[in-house]
Hints:
Layout: H1 2-57, H2 65-94
Helix pairs in contact: 1-2
Amino acid sequence: MFGEGLHIRFQSFYLFLRFGNLCRERVDQNYLRTLLSLGFQAFLIVVCVAIYSVLVQNISVSGDIGAAIWTCMGYTVLLCFCLFKTSSLARSVFNAH
């Protein structure tokens, strides 16, 4: 009788430790995914800013200055939208939450 109770206690203790390891593995995986998504987000930001700089350099100011200003403002709004979307895109690629 003493051996059976001791066996059940050890088994429940083992299950408790195993559950703790599973939770820790999930936390580690989520941490790694989040870290990778942050790195990918930084890469996407660099790409967005590089594309923006090329677009802004190609604006012709010699013609209509108003059209150049509106074009630059449009590109800037597009850049802001893209920068805000990099987070959700990177998190969805790496399935991080």
